[in-house]
Amino acid sequence: MIGNDLVDLRQAAIESNWRRKGYLVKVCTPEEQELVLEASKPDEMLWLIWTMKEAACKIIQRKTGIRRYEPINFCCGSLNINKKNSSGIVSYFKDSFLMRSELSDTFIHSVAVSALKDFQHLHLQYLRPEPDYRTAFNRLSEFYQLAGTPSGIPELTHQITGQKHAVSVSHHGDYLAVIYSDSLLLAD
Amino acid sequence: MDREVIISAIKEVAAPYTQDKQALDEISETTSFITDLKINSANLVDIVLDLEEKFGIEIDNDSMAKMLDVKSTLDVIEAKLAEK
To answer: Out of the domains of life, which is the source (chain B) (predicted)?
Structure first.
């Protein structure tokens, strides 16, 4: 399974005051709090950690079918941050996920997978965040058709095989990202 | 405390975090913060913190995990008020 999450940094600066009393301790483990507070760019660090947690959470939600709001139980570790990207691990009780993130000046986008090989056939498509983004995706895609279930879960069908592939969509502010896999199916 | 009173308090707390004023006006126990009110998940923490302040309660992580819709939020607030 795959999951992604995106934060528009400009939008986040308007919407969220994570420095308010009590916020960080509800969201971050003590180790993560330290990473944020000691970072040269604390906002970027917080939103990197946040997107990692949310991307992994999407996998858990699809697996269990249960929605819970427990960012603190998704623990980020082994963070390796470069200028424009980072990697790491998110663990949730007995499960753990491998993470890769893109760090731009204006947004942060994180991708979670269950196994390293799952990164191999993964594609990323950025689109304009418009209501008909699925139409735009389908125009660009040669083989896939993107649709949504009534409950809003994205569904990606290969036009020739008819198989449903693993897909995840995240939208925030000015950005929208679709990730999907050639090799992983919906149930994988 | 009356459930209607708590719902209107939840409505007041949620108001600054939603752009969907119509959905907010139609708030009921079945309203979901994320799906119906289109509240950003990072702002759910703000709602939890605002409710803590408003009711003078402390919401633990396990209770927060359930607070995705109005009904569960009501239940958590009622339970925490009863503990006081």
So the answer is: Bacteria
**Long-range contacts formed by A94-100: CB under 8 A, 24+ apart:** A95/A60, A97/A3, A97/A55, A97/A56, A97/A59, A99/A52, A99/A55, A99/A56
pLDDT at A151: 75
Q: How many domains does chain B have?
A: 1
Task: Give the count of alpha carbons within 13 A of B16, CB side only.
Answer: 11
Task: Domain of residue B20: give its range.
Answer: 3-83
ipTM comes to: 0.94
Q: What is the pLDDT of residues A151-169, one digit of tens each?
A: 778 999 999 999 999 999 9
What pLDDT score does A137 carry?
Answer: 98
Structure tokens at B42: 């990072």
Q: For residue A76, give the nearest of A65, A87, A84, A66 by alpha carbon.
A: A87
- pLDDT value, residue A152: 77
Instruction: Please enumerate residues of A whose Cβ is less than 8 A from a Cβ of B.
Output: 7, 12, 15-18, 20-23, 26-27, 50, 54, 67-73, 152, 172
- CATH homologous superfamily for A2-185? 4'-phosphopantetheinyl transferase domain (3.90.470.20)
